[in-house]
Structures are given as structure tokens and as C-alpha cells.
Amino acid sequence: MSGQWTPSQRALARAAYRRGRRRRSFLVALASTVVVAVLAFVVLVGSPGWDRAREAFFDPVEFVAVLPAVAQGLWLNLRVWVVAGVIAVVGGLALAVARTTTAPALFPLRAVVTIYIDVFRGVPVLLVLLLVGFGLPALRLPWLPITATFLGTLAIVLTYTAYLAEIFRAGIESVHPSQVAAARALGLTRGQTTRRVVVPQAVRAVTPALLNMIVALQKDSGLISILGAVDAIRAAEIAVSGSYNFTAYVVAGFLFLLISVPLTRLVDAYNARRGGRGVGAAMVGAIR
Amino acid sequence: MTGPTPKPLRPPLLRVAGLRKSFGTNLVLDDLDLDVAEHSCVVLIGASGSGKSTLLRAVDLLEEVDDGVIELRGVDLADPWVDANAARARMGMVFQSYNLFGHMSVLANVTLAPRLVHGRTKEEAEAAAVAMLERVGLGDKITAYPDQLSGGQQQRAAIARALVNGPELLLLDEVTSALDPELVGEVLDLLAELRAEGTTMLVATHEMGFARQAADLVCFLDGGRVLESGPPEQVLGAPEQPRTREFLARLHA
Ligand SMILES: Nc1ncnc2c1ncn2[C@@H]1O[C@H](COP(=O)(O)OP(=O)(O)OP(=O)(O)O)[C@@H](O)[C@H]1O
Ligand SMILES: [Mg+2]
């Protein structure tokens, strides 16, 4: 029956009206974009230092010349990102769960975890990086690799593990106590309840926040350049000091954007798809 | 009190005696006594806040009580040295708000405890779960997630989750109060069926129709204790206590 529907005159008129509004909206948006773009161009190009700035920052020859070295550096950033991300996610979850334990024998564990999180959440990443980068080698531990990449990654891992532990903890606390009661009523132990009922729901609840942290981590991987690891930023720095032309920095920024913009869009799209739906509903989308 | 009740031949399945539970200064259960005989259906009625849920949660060891005895087949579960997980595994609890696990399909909800607590294999657990879900009329919702079910369907899934473990005692907390009137019937019919099969039940409810139809014993909770108890015709039809009469009058008003 419903397959036989022929739109009424009224429905056709409405559709035509909506099409008209959409076209109008598009034209308005286009016009205002053109105006803003032209204004920006005029201001930029008309500025007194434009010619020199263009040479110093947007030299096409330099752009092509430094691209391979900076891209090579970015490859290091990406590896650091993946390794640090995986360790921080796993570690953060482990710390968050450790905080929820109740066994008296585990009290020292809970205490250490709490102090760890307080410290590394409260200290700027940059400072952690300097302390780890220059402090640890001073200990002269024979088994400790003291490459800049290793120490830089370690510092980032230490910080992000603390950040992510806090996010996971918020997730664990967001799981309604009635879910725990239901699990305990079935005879599940505390540990089984945590693993099978609380953590899965907590992780799904904090996935948006988690993904945002992962994106932030990608950018912060550039901090390892401070210790001298030759990542994209350090590679650009080297190029700049050789040529006195800043285009290499622009190249590095361009490459970071190339990664982080699609990543952010992806995360936004995922979060939008989950919408404002509750924890339970969100999980459904994630599973299927 | 009420007329002479026939002396039970065996000790009751559940014996609650002198139970006391307070939240801070709020004394909710005050020296409460209650027996539930095997294969009987005991219905708890009482005003909102009279402690029905608290009593059920205490029996299922989800609340620590201040004092008193909670004996299941003669073993006092209130003793802290009793294995509480094992005790809970012998009882089934259905909550007012279903409390299904939102991240699991209906099937996973129902097979969780059999596999984790009762040591069933995946195949055994799934076969039993499917049979139980078909029994409660959810045979076609096995792969659905809780948020895809109506309230009545969620409540029936929760009942299946409790029943699949073959509990010795089924605790039901106002299992119909969150449901639309049309859905109440389907859940109550299911409970009446279980009752006919001899499932031992302790039920908190505001459904006097259900109490009248299915209860062996109706207990009116007031002031933290069982103020009046007896067969439904007596407690609901000709209550002795003025408080009970007041409560029933307000309910019918
Ligand atoms: N976790 C808690 N913390 C503090 N007070 C509580 C808690 N749970 C219940 N109470 C209190 O205990 C009293 C009894 O509550 P309970 O939920 O047992 O009532 P009820 O008879 O089930 O009521 P209803 O018919 O509305 O479900 C109430 O005064 C309530 O405020
Ligand atoms: Mg209640």
C-alpha cells in the first residue's frame, strides 16, 4: 500500500520550497566565504613585510628541498605516537582498575597509583620530558637505553598514562551502581563484575574523551625533539639552521596537519554517530 | 495477631529474624521477622519507603545489615564468614529497573552467570538460555540489545536471567511498577505460571491483584517490621490493623 504513494501537491510544494531554501543558503555561504577570503588575501599580501615573509616562510624551492627530511622525521613521530598511545591506553586502564580494588593486601598498590596519577597529572609534560631526558641518564643505569627517542617516549607515556587513567576512572564511576548490584546478585565476584560489567561499559562511555587524547598525543609526540630526537620538528630545525629559511617549519606544520585534521574529523564523525545516546545505547553502535 | 497458621513441617527455606538495618540515623528495618516456606509465594506490601526493597536487598546480601538473622536452609547468610558470592548465586533477584547489562545482547545477559558462576560450557549455557527466553516469550529477541526492547520485554529478559540459574529463592522487587499498564499483565502472567510450578518467591509489589491471586502469604511492612501478615483474603480483605486499613484505603482511593 505505502509503496504506491504519489506525493500530494502539498508535499511537492513543500519539497520545492525546501530546495529553494537550500540553494539560497548555499549561495549566501559561498558569497560570504569569497568576501572573507578576498579580505584576508588583501590584508596579508598588502602588509609591508609580505614579500620578505613569503620568501622566508613559503619558498617553494626550499619546500621541496626539505620535504624528504621532515617527512622522515614525521615517520618517527608516528611511531612514537603509536607505541606511546598503545602503552598509555593499556597502562591507564590498568591503573584505573587498580584504584577500584578493595583487597587490603593491595593497599600499597592503590596508594602508589594514586600518588603517581597526582604527580604526573599535575606536572607540565615539558617538565617531565626534561626531568626524564636529562635526569635518568645521570643515574647511569647500565640497562637503561638513553637514546633521546626512548627517553622522550617514556616521558610522554608517563604523562599520558596518568591522563588516561583519570579518564578511565571517570568512566568507571559513571557506570550506575545498579549494574554492579545486578552482577553481584547473579553471584559474580567483585573481580568478575569489574571485568565483565563495569570496564566494558566504562570504556564505551569515555571513548570520545579517549580519542581526543589520542589526537592530542599525536601532536605532543613532537615534544621529543627537545631531547634531540630527530623527528619532524627537529629535522625542520636542522634545515632552518642550515639555510636561514623558515619554510621547513611550515613544512613540518603542514605534515602534522595532514595527519591530525583527518584524524580529528574521523573522531568527530565517530562521536557524532554515537550522538547524545546513553552509555548502553552507545555500546550497541560500537559492537555492530 | 493473626489467626493460627499451620505449623510448617520443615524449617522454612528462608528465615529472617530480628533484622535491623539503618542508613545513618534512618532506621529502615527494625527487628523484622519473616519466614518464607519452600514453594510458597510471599508478597510484601507497604507504603513507599517502608523498606521493601531494602529487605530484598538485605536478603540477597547486597546490603550489610546491622543485626539479625538471614537463614537460607538453616545457614545464616548474615555471618560475614559465609561465602556471599555462593549464597547470591543460589538466589535470583529481579530489580525494579531491570538492570540488564546494556553492553551485552539479551543472550549474553542470560548466559553470563551460568558460564562465569555455575561453570556451564558455552553450549550448555546457550541452550538453557534460549529455552528460558523462549519460555518468557523472547525467543525472537535473543540477539537484541536491551535498549532495543520494550519495558515489558526487558523485564522478562531480566526474569529469564535470574531464572536460568535455577534459583532456590526468587526475589522480585516491584517488577511491574516501571511498566505501562498493558505490559503489566504479561509479566504478572509469567509470575503466576512460576508460582504454579512451585518456584519459591519473595515479591515486593503494589499490584494488589497479583497479591490476591498468587500470594500464599501477604506481609504488610510498616515502621520497619511486618505489622500484619496472613493469607491475602485476610490481610487485603479484612485487615486487623488500622495502619493496614489506611494503606489499602489510600491505594484504592
Ligand atoms: N542506599 C541508601 N542510602 C540511604 N538511604 C536509603 C538507601 N536505600 C534506601 N534508603 C532509605 O530506606 C528507606 C526504605 O527504602 P526502600 O527502597 O527499601 O523502600 P521501599 O519500600 O522499597 O519503597 P518503594 O515502594 O518506593 O520502592 C527509605 O527511607 C530510603 O530513603
Ligand atoms: Mg522499592
List the chains of the largest interface with their residue counts: A-B, 24 and 30 residues
Total number of strands of chain B = 10
Query: Which sheet architecture does the biggest sheet of chain A show?
Result: none
**Can you identify the CATH superfamily of chain B?**
P-loop containing nucleotide triphosphate hydrolases
The largest β sheet of chain B comes out as: 6 strands, mixed
| Uncertain regions spanning at least 5 consecutive residues of chain A | 276-288
Q: Termini distance of chain B?
A: 27 Å
Overall form of chain A: flat
Proportion of residues in extended strands of chain A: under 5%
How much strand of chain B? 15-25%
Number of helical stretches of at least 4 residues of chain A: 11
Q: Give the mean pLDDT of chain A.
A: 89
Q: Using DSSP, what is the number of strands of chain A?
A: 0
Radius of gyration of chain B equals 18 Å
Protein name (chain B): Amino acid ABC transporter ATP-binding protein
GO molecular function (chain B): ATP binding
Domain ABC transporter (chain B): 14-248
Organism (chain B): Occultella glacieicola
Structure, explained:
- The complex is a heterodimer of chains A (288) and B (253).
- Chain A is mainly α.
- Chain A folds into two domains: 6-40; 65-273, Orthogonal Bundle (MetI-like fold), CATH 1.10.3720.
- Chain A is built from eleven helices and no strands.
- The two termini of chain A are 32 Å apart.
- The two termini of chain B are 27 Å apart.
- At the A-B interface, helix 7, helix 8 and helix 11 of A face helix 2, strand 6 and helix 3 of B.
- The complex binds adenosine-5'-triphosphate (ATP) and magnesium ion.
